[in-house]
Amino acid sequence: MIEDAEAIGAAVSSALREAGYQVQVRPDGRDLEGELARFRPDLVVLDVMLPGRDGFMLLEVIRRTTGAGVVMLTARDGVADRLRGLDRGADDYVVKPFVLAELVARVSAVLRRLGRTPSTVQIGDLLVDADSAVVLRGDVPVELTATELRLLRYLAAQRGRVVGKTQILTAVWGYEDYDPNLVEVHVSALRRKLEEHGPRLLHTVRGLGYVLRADET
Amino acid sequence: MIEDAEAIGAAVSSALREAGYQVQVRPDGRDLEGELARFRPDLVVLDVMLPGRDGFMLLEVIRRTTGAGVVMLTARDGVADRLRGLDRGADDYVVKPFVLAELVARVSAVLRRLGRTPSTVQIGDLLVDADSAVVLRGDVPVELTATELRLLRYLAAQRGRVVGKTQILTAVWGYEDYDPNLVEVHVSALRRKLEEHGPRLLHTVRGLGYVLRADET
DNA sequence: CCCGGAGCTGAGCGATGGCTGAAGAGGTGG
DNA sequence: CCACCTCTTCAGCCATCGCTCAGCTCCGGG
Questions:
Q1: How many CB atoms lie under 10 A from the CB of residue B143?
Q2: CB 3.0-4.6 Å disulfide test: which of A136, A183, B63, B93 passes with A127?
Q3: Is the pLDDT of residue A190 over 80?
């Protein structure tokens, strides 16, 4: 991410890390080429307004030297900026001020579109397809609500890793300091639907959180 | 698409995929014959400047071995190139640097001209012919208004994928931040006509959007 | 074996999302 | 200038969802 406002940079990078991405933040385009070569990003989040070289110049550098996706951050009324950015090959843009969850959603949408992320994840006999919003247990389709699906997607992205309820609250709801029971309620609902046609996949780790894992043997 | 600049390849392929096409990108003409036989493209987007065999040689191979359309990418001042390309049978050309939307438009224009566009899409027993604006449910013709047809075309191009109302608003109406009820009203009208003679095809996914999908199983 | 805290879940409610009929605005052709 | 048609807005309705709460169970430690 290239963003000179430190607060925004910190907030966004922690939200993206929560979602399972590796993130580097730089305040400007200084030695962009070197950074790109070193870090080899799949995607760059690019502020339009930057000290030194502005976002559009950096966009061209990125396009010329890498295959990375680009999501631009533009000011609310920067319609011209937006078109200019999309024209020159930005994959998407987000208007400031934005909700963190929206940025994260767009980032993963672009990555998916670029084929950098498998849109369908499999855990045991459970299939989660992000594009079509279809979830299958074996061959049986599972009907989920929007929140359940968001929760499942997050757990699927973190599969095999134990995630705390606090972590889930910030990643899925954007809440910072909240009643963990909210997570418990939705985990409960999710389990009822997921495990109706098969063994347990969503395990409780007492005192730590939850894991999505297929237990063989 | 044959394009050695990775950035351009990525941008174009994602734009074309958005428009509903299946795309493969190759950096050069290596084993072009094999690739053509395997992928059987309806159209090839061909960069003129390529390492190894240049675009014109590849153009001849394509013409000799397939019926595919060809759109060439030429440098700004390559007038000679352009004429040479058209002479030898390219269907159209786009000058670099180009606007993504223009390339997409030319690609679909060529496909339509060649009659290669599966200008007709089938979802279950629903037939949508984009050119003739004919829509059939089973054998029964369905009378749609202009807006309904645009909406249906978009959904058909994205079939199987859940599309949000916001996404529909920008794709079909060009609106940026608008009342989603507009979409709901037209979806409602579309359903009344489409589903008069058959089961539901245009499904609501609460909290996410709509999908055009034929449910078997 | 008992106790406390962690986790689970059914019930209830307010809020939201989605659908639709109706009416007005705009445009087109007769 | 009128009649018709399409598009859009609006408002009310309904179903469902998401959250809170409270009582319960379960598990592990002492």
A1: 8
A2: A136
A3: yes
How many of the other CB atoms lie within 10 Å of CB of B130? 19
Taking 70 as the threshold, does the pLDDT of residue A84 lie above it? no
Got the DSSP string for B86-142?
HHTT-SEEEESS--HHHHHHHHHHHHHHTT-S--EEEETTEEEETTTTEEEETTEE-
Which nucleotide is closest to B182, CA to C1'?
D8
CA dihedral B169, B175, B176, B177 (to 10 degrees): -80
Distance between CA atoms of residues A88 and A181, nearest Å: 46
Q: For residue A209, what are its two tokens?
A: 């959180």
- Which DSSP helix (H) or strand (E) runs through A215? none
Asked if residue B153 keeps its beta carbon closer than 7 A to nucleic acid strand D, the reply is no
- Output B71 or A120, whichever has higher pLDDT: B71
| Contacting residues 158-187/A vs strand D (CB within 7 A) | 173, 179, 181-182, 185-186
Give yes or no for a contact between A55 and A46, defined as CB atoms under 8 angstroms apart.
yes
Percent of chain A at pLDDT > 90 equals 35
Q: Which residues of A fall within a CB distance of 8 Å from B163?
A: none
The answer to whether the beta carbons of residues A195 and A202 sit under 8 Å apart is yes
Q: How far is B217 from chain A (nearest CA, A)?
A: 9
**CA separation for the pair A8, A19 (Å, rounded):** 17
